[in-house]
Amino acid sequence: MNKLKKEYLFFKQQEPNMRTLLVTNMLYALVLPIVEIFVGAYIMRNTSDPVMVAFYQLAMYIGIITTSLVNGYLLKKYSVKTLYSAGILVSGISMFGMMTIKSLGFVELGLAGFLMGAASGFFWTNRYLLALYNTNDNSRNYFFGLESFFFSITSIGVPLIIGAFISQIDGKEVFGFLFNINTSYCVVTMAAVVITVIACMTLWKGKFENPKETNFLYFRFNILWKKMLWLAGLKGMVQGFLVTAPAILVLKLVGDEGALGLIQGVSGALTAVLVYVLGRMARPQDRLKIFVGGLIVFFVGTLFNGILFSATGVILFVLCKVIFQPLFDLAYFPIMMRTIDAVAKIENRNEYAYILSHEFGLFLGRAFGLLLFIFLAYCVSQDFALKYALVIVAGLQLAAYPLAKNITNQTDTIEHENDK
């Protein structure tokens, strides 16, 4: 209890805006597992086609990049917290709209995916902007460590609770109403909408500023930022699979949503504590060690899945995936934001210009990864795609380490020259 009290007091010592942003993101962390896992599982259950899940995800990423561009223009007229709140709210409403659709064809999935992506575009770009403005390089390890801790905790608890709820209530009558699998998903989504409203109310307690420079659309950048965009592409290439692959693999080879929640829970427990400790104790110079550790864990997990391609292989892959994702993000986001700090000073531009171009980098990587999966599924077989597409992208992503090291060294040089 004394240690918990000490950590709470340390949290209270942070800047008020940083605390407000963290609490908002912690609340949204309760919703994110529904978006990332159960939407994919819902589509898989209703279509029995992994390619449809990948198509939905691609439409979602198109929605993200579209609203990231629109968000830049809206920042000229509306406050960043208004746009951030809109992203949070629309994400919950979009899920509910999708789950009320009776027929899930390509058109319906494309529209639902685009709307979900539109919400995510407002959420993530404004989240990056607020985190950039309300943290510094010394506090970012803690910020993303604590945030990842709660995302890991919710990735354990939420799937367990929802998986158990869906498994237990399916086919049963409650208060005279007969529940089926789809109505159970609707109940889960309504709960998610309520949480998003509470998150928005929390966000409005903060005093956040918009960028002073309004121009944000550029096509030429410093060589350092071009390297960062390549790193974003490598991250996005794997990120597309992390949303769809676990749900597809578990439902295909292991079982139902209850099994999905249990697997996530087992692997997430240790990771939650590990990421918080690393975020609390690690220095900025330790980021590359964390970065390469996450890359290796993920690559090993994809090998387990590709070689075994069984329930055991899937469990080992998901274990590695849940460990990899927060470790990778813990190192990646501070590197990205430190690079933005450095390049924005060199080029004297609005920081949102880099956040927007970063989304384009992520999009190109995501599109490549998903199109690779769809190509292999149609031209070879779905099993081949599920086995080897992950191994291919994980192998390519190993190139992220030398690239991240080069970016970090170059940023160090720029900051050292500025200090002189």
TrEMBL record:
The chain crosses the membrane at residues 21-43, 55-75, 82-101, 107-130, 142-166, 178-204, 229-253, 259-278, 290-308, 314-333, 354-378. It comes from the Bacteria. Keywords: Membrane, Transmembrane, Transmembrane helix. One of its GO terms (molecular function) is transmembrane transporter activity. The keyword Transcription does not apply. PANTHER family: INTEGRAL MEMBRANE TRANSPORT PROTEIN-RELATED, MAJOR FACILITATOR SUPERFAMILY (MFS) PROFILE DOMAIN-CONTAINING PROTEIN. This is MFS transporter. It comes from Bacteroides caecimuris.
